Fold each of these.
Amino acid sequence: MARPVMADADVLLDFAAGAGAAPSVRRLIHAGRLVVSSIVFYELWRGAESEADREDLRRLLAGVPVVWFTRQDAEGAASIWQDLTGHERELVGDRDLLIAGTALARGWPVLTRNRRHFKLTGVELVDPSP
């Protein structure tokens, strides 16, 4: 079986809007390969300001596993941060580091349009282009 692919928040927002990376997200969901980190879930839930937004989010992620942040994920994130230079550390936000650390610890690629920041982390990236 093919490896899971972790989705970043940007591609899930595309999917919700039916734009951008939506076809890639849809394919991965149908293949049973898309997963969401608890960090991305937090980012999305934080932006869901109304009960209707939260219900839309529940429907959007129905059947998509949420992987919870573990000690190994934290070690992966810290390892990435330690390998970055001072300037690079300023470019990559903490949440992106935690997402990348989760992917690194599990050996999974990340589906994102945010290549600028994630490429600094060294994790494998999946092109979300349709």
Amino acid sequence: MSVNVPIKTVTPANASGTAVGAAIANLPAPTKSDWSKMDISAPDAGRVESGRMLKKRKGKADRIDLEWQMISRADTALVLQAFDPEYVLVEYLDAKAGQWVTKHFYTGDMKTVGWMPHLDKWETVSFAIIRATPDPR
């Protein structure tokens, strides 16, 4: 079976990462899904006088930038409502792990651009999801 969707499910969650609602599994495939890893450093991390970097990593957090293009009004509502809770559990294809994982995220600012009434579609829907509970060092 071929899987072309990097997100399988989105489930509403609380701040602790516990599911508080039903999983949504029928999301349309995003046009773009860019994975990145962010390091979380200690407040006193930085370059010392010699120029050497003291990273002092405290944790690592995934970030996934998602975008849908030419998406119907109904699918736009489905996507925006799925990621609307303050926190969500997302089952996704983790680029670094090379497998499907479920992690605790929050959603960044959401944006829709270019309503096309003659097609009943939005040109673009985009936002980032960022790990709410980072991995330890």
